[in-house]
Amino acid sequence: MRGSISVFFLFLLCKFIQAGDSTEIRYAAELLRIPAGSDIAAMGDAGVSLLRRASSAFWNPSAPAFLKKYEVSVEAADLYEGLSQQGCFAVGIPVDGDLGASLLYVPFFSGDIVMYDSLEGTYLERLTNPEMRAVGAGTGVFQNYQNALFLTLAKLFPFILPRAPGVSFPLPLDIAVGGSIKGYWQSMNPAGKIRMGMGLNLDAGIEGIIGVDYDFKKKEVSRKVALGASWRNILPSRIVWINSPRDYQEPFEFEQFYGISYTDISGNLYADWAVTFALEKAHGLIYHEGIEAELWDIVAIRAGLSGETPSVGAGVHYRNWFMDYAFRFDDLAWSFLRITMGMRF
């Protein structure tokens, strides 16, 4: 479960200092596993093949190739009943020649984290056994700040699928490839000492969208199937910690995402529909599913499942403005508020 795993790493498991010696375990870059984009968070994090916002570059670096307009959005999330806060500022820029670019800045603030001299068992044992989790007052508190910056460039390659004359209208096949360079930096202050970690890495992605039906009345493709794949942290680089004992470093973890989406804007069943599935391979295998129904071309209702974590949400768009909301039933504590507001121009 992406949400609960991430927050346990951040709060209960990954930040403790053993008494005496300063052997520190941080699990850096777990911020990169907390979802960005309220629409995709509401659909179970199944965003690798459903590319439609500037923030979609978080899920698949090929996303900017599909931008038709400039886009600016701001997202704020109050996670795990207020234990932490996250944001996302996204800018999407369509460029001539079927090129697109995006810039994402994702900050995270943990709030106060209780520090303990020691914890029983391993972090995996504490994940599954509540009796092993930390209790009591602890030895103090500290804060954890994380930041990620993504710069993405993508290229679209449009094709037309040949079909027998007189049978149907030729349908499009759009293939996009993209890459992101991302910078990550983190700071903590355990025992009043500033610890800083930073690193660089690359992501890559590909998306193929094929039209499977054409609406002659609206003169547009009414049904599409999309296949997407992305690979995160493809470089063997490490996060280097400054002002930390023993030249402490941590590797970025390589992650893989594969997904398929079906979009139907024909208006059948009184709505436009999107159904998406994704497979994530990182710590283990996680399955993601999501569904969306858009009514009157204005209001969207969404639901999803990320591993065993359900989520729901809604969205509204009017002319060039849009707003999305997500609610997640994370195991540690429910995340009531994740909201995105943006505009296209």
Task: Describe this entry's structure for a reader.
The two termini are 36 Å apart. The longest helix has 12 residues, at 2-13. The chain has helices spanning 2-13, 38-42, 123-128, and strands spanning 16-17, 24-25, 71-79, 84-95, 99-115, 140-161, 171-188, 195-215, 220-232, 238-242, 249-251, 255-264, 272-281, 285-295, 299-306, 309-318, 321-328, 335-344. It has a single domain (36-112, 143-344), classed as Porin (Beta Barrel). The relative contact order is 0.20. With 345 residues, it is mostly beta strands. The strands form 2 sheets. A 14-stranded antiparallel beta barrel has the order 3-4-5-6-7-8-9-12-13-14-15-16-17-18. The chain is globular, with a radius of gyration of 21 Å. The chain contains 3 helices and 18 strands.
Protein structure class: mainly beta
Unreliable stretches covering 5 or more consecutive residues: 1-25
Number of continuous helical runs: 3
Shape: globular
Please outline the helices and strands.
Layout: H1 2-13, E1 16-17, E2 24-25, H2 38-42, E3 71-79, E4 84-95, E5 99-115, H3 123-128, E6 140-161, E7 171-188, E8 195-215, E9 220-232, E10 238-242, E11 249-251, E12 255-264, E13 272-281, E14 285-295, E15 299-306, E16 309-318, E17 321-328, E18 335-344
Antiparallel strand pairs: 1-2, 3-4, 3-18, 4-5, 5-6, 6-7, 7-8, 8-9, 8-10, 9-12, 10-11, 12-13, 13-14, 14-15, 15-16, 16-17, 17-18
